[in-house]
């Protein structure tokens, strides 16, 4: 997936915003409650990747099936994955959607 397509994927999720708390080179995507669900590597990086939130058991399973997916870079290794953008597109869409779901605000009953 291209970096621009990844950006659009993130920003099309309900309430998602983009910010640059680490400087203009590192986009961070947050849910409506301000919780981070994706951190992009610097644009133009020769091996673009994104760090995404994941449930611990799901993260282990995904990493077992896809050796290029690693524990989250500079993040809690049980709850975050670093995913290269060249994984199958549907896998990346599913991982981003799940990351957003894990941090988004819960609906009131």
UniProtKB/TrEMBL annotation:
Keyword annotations from UniProtKB, A to Z: DNA-binding
GO molecular function, one term: DNA binding
Domain of life: Bacteria
Pfam entry (one): YjbR
Keyword DNA-binding annotated: yes
Keyword Magnesium applies: no
Membrane-spanning segments: none
Protein name in UniProt: DNA-binding protein
Organism field: Conyzicola nivalis
């Amino acid at each position: 997936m291209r970096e621009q397509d990844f950006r659009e994927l993130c920003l099309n999720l309900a309430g998602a915003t983009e910010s640059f708390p680490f400087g203009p080179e590192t986009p961070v995507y947050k849910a409506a409650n301000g919780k981070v669900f994706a951190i992009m590597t610097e644009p133009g990086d020769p091996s673009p990747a994104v760090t995404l939130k994941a449930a611990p058991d799901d993260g282990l399973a995904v990493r077992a099936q896809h050796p290029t997916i690693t524990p989250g870079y500079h993040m809690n290794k049980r709850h975050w994955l670093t995913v290269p953008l060249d994984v199958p597109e549907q896998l990346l869409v599913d991982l981003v959607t799940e990351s957003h779901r894990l941090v988004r605000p819960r609906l009131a009953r």
